[in-house]
Write a structure and sequence with these properties.
Layout (H helix, E strand, L loop, with lengths): L4 E4 L6 H10 L5 E4 L4 H11 L6 H5 L7 E3 L5 E2 L6
Parallel strand pairs: 1-2
Antiparallel strand pairs: 1-3, 3-4
Length: 82
């Protein structure tokens, strides 16, 4: 992975502020809208279902988006952590 990957949904109210924070910081990323296609959803679920970082969010009934996967494979869930 050469650039960060943002997994998001345009239906999620948390997406717009996260994208605004990325834009303000000049961070370029691959955008993966999980509600745009089954391929995108499956790609996200493969990540979410195999990473412990999502466990707390899943336990709370959250999906775990938006999330930025960095080139070093770490995950950023909050704009303030960028």
């Amino acid at each position: 992975m050469n650039q960060p990957v943002l997994f998001f949904s345009d239906l999620c109210p948390d997406t717009a502020p996260f994208v605004a924070a990325l834009t303000a910081r000049g961070i370029e990323y691959e955008a993966v809208n999980i509600t745009a296609s089954m391929k995108n959803l499956k790609r996200f679920l493969a990540l979410r279902d195999n990473r412990a970082e999502f466990d707390v969010r899943k336990a709370q009934g959250a999906i775990g988006i938006p999330v930025l996967q960095l080139p070093d494979d770490s995950l950023v869930f909050a704009a303030e952590d960028l």
